[in-house]
Amino acid sequence: MSDDGGEDAEAFDIEGGVEGDDQYTEVTHEDLGDDSIQGACAGICIGFLLFFGSFPLLFWNEGRAVERYDALNEAESEVTSVSGMNIDAANEGKLLHFSVNITNAGDALVDPIFGIETTDGLALRRSAEMYQWYEQTKTTSKKNVGGRKTSTKTYTYEKEWKDYLVSSQNFKTPNGHSNPSSMEFEDATFNADPIMIGAYELPRELVGRIDWDKPMSLDVDDITSQSIRDRTVKNSDGFYFSNSNSTSGPQVGDQRVSFTETPASIITIVGIQNGNTLSAFVSETGEGGDILLFNQGKYSATEMFDAAESENAVFTWILRLVGYMVMAAGIYLIFRPIEVFADIIPCVGSVVGCGIIFMACLISAVLSSITIAIAWLVAHPEIGAIILVVTLTVVGCCAFGVKQLGKRRGEQDAVSSSSISISDDKVVADSVPTVYATQEGKVVPDTITAEPTVYSTPGPYVPNV
After folding, report:
1. Does residue 167 contact residue 179 with C-beta atoms inside 8 Å?
2. pLDDT of 236
């Protein structure tokens, strides 16, 4: 509960209670007050920033995609395939493609703590995990009458293996969930130097791309450090280090360590010959980014560039989605105050909120598509024109369909709103293309006709159809 009193205490209340040793629940009651309204109004400013910021993001992404596409096409037209087993001075400065073995041309790789080594591996990696407390948070909200909102936040504590140190000082309830302040063993990577690809040295920027690791089959005797070996227990994944003498399972602070190595393999690379190594290709315009292609396995030049173009397409679609979501979020924040005021009646606020989200998604889809089309129209007019025509056609068809649907519903409403009047022992069907018969004071619908018809009611009557 707030200690400030007054209006703040009434508008924002917090209740907390422990439901168990490993769970804590916090309930917050928030009224529809100045804070909620001010937050929604502040969201309008953020919404405008997101909305208008999404347009340059989408436009820039399409320009980037086109530039990358053009650079890849330019590079593919200039590439020359060679064996890669010798360096030809005549190829200096040329874009080369070759597939060769990648090998460790340096010394054996040794872990300085454990003494584990690999003689011909390209990389040696130590992976360390520690059994620790981990906090998970789950929040649920409920809207009440009058705009009051109840939020329930549940903190759950579980023990898990983590490859990083979890600070228990930031837990909601650190008591009883304390983690060690450091890890005795941490992750480490040792790379060969130099790494050769045929007659060339692998460019430094590609060392991190060597990721085809395989687990090492080790025994406790492979550990050279006597002090570490004496307290090591072998398990299926590597080595286990207990922080206690408990036999009831892993305890907080226990660690397990495993090792992997990256063996020699066949790789394919595309790059500019630069002395005894390769460097990135840059287009004549300097746009489209650096092109230095590298993959494990044997691939043709065409396959390498096709893969690069696919990566460019995937990245482009990811940024398109980001731009679309930023625009939709901006529109939602701009209109969110309407939802906040509608929250006075919970069901109405939820319906209004869903409507705003739908509207934001729909408007964002249209505006994002048009922005993308205009960007392509600037970069490649012939392609951009096609995209723009298709986009406008789809939007127009959707708008026409909505209009026709509204018109049809209007006609149905007009039919359903027609009336039947009884005057001077006569039944009049007003503006309804239906024939009615009267019998024993009841009005019974019968057969459709094109014009309203008046029938007398002295005695039983059968309409003349």
Report:
1. yes
2. 83
Whole-number Å distance between alpha carbons of 73 and 66: 11
Residue with tokens 């340096």: 106
d(CA 132, CA 161): 6
Higher pLDDT, 192 or 15: 192
Query: In which residue are the tokens 């200096």 written?
Result: 92
Tokens 């092109």 belong to residue: 291
30 touches 149 (CB < 8 A): yes
Q: What CA–CA distance (Å, rounded) separates 254 from 128?
A: 11
Pairing of strands 123-143, 442-448: unpaired
Q: DSSP letter string over 152-213? A: EEEEEEEEEEESS---GGGSSS-TT----SS-SS--EEEE-SSEEETTEEPPGGGGGG----
d(CA 111, CA 125): 9
Q: Distance between CA atoms of 368 and 390, rounded to whole angstroms?
A: 14
Q: Work out the widest C-alpha separation in the chain, in whole angstroms.
A: 117
Q: Output the six-digit token pair for 256.
A: 């397990």
The model's confidence at residue 391, banded by pLDDT at 50, 70 and 90, is: confident
Contact assessment for residue 42 and residue 58, using Cβ atoms and an 8 Å cutoff: no
CA-angle at 205, arms to 198 and 82, nearest 5°:
30
- pLDDT higher than threshold 50 for residue 2: no
Provide φ and ψ at 319, rounded to 5°.
-70, -35
Q: What is the pLDDT of residue 280?
A: 97
Q: Are 434 and 448 in contact (CB under 8 A)?
A: yes
Q: What is the pLDDT of residues 84-121, one digit of tens each?
A: 999 999 999 999 999 999 999 999 999 999 999 999 99
Q: What is the DSSP string of 326-390?
A: HHHHHHHHHHHHHHHHHTTSHHHHHHHHHHHHHHHHHHHHHHHHHHHHHHHHHH-HHHHHHHHHH
3-state class (DSSP) for residue 407: helix
- Among residues 186, 189, 207, 187, the alpha carbon closest in space to that of 261 is found at 189
Three-state secondary structure call for residue 34: helix
Taking all residues of the chain, what is their mean pLDDT, rounded to a whole number?
84
DSSP 24: E
Rounded to 5 degrees, φ, ψ at 142 are -135, 130
> Above 70 in pLDDT, residue 457?
no
Distance CA 260, CA 258 (A): 7
Residues 6+ apart with CB under 8 A from 103: 120, 122, 195, 196, 264
SS3 for 279?
strand
Residue 303 has pLDDT above 90, yes or no: yes
Q: How far apart are the first and last CA of the chain?
A: 78
pLDDT band at 421 (very low <50, low <70, confident <90, very high): low
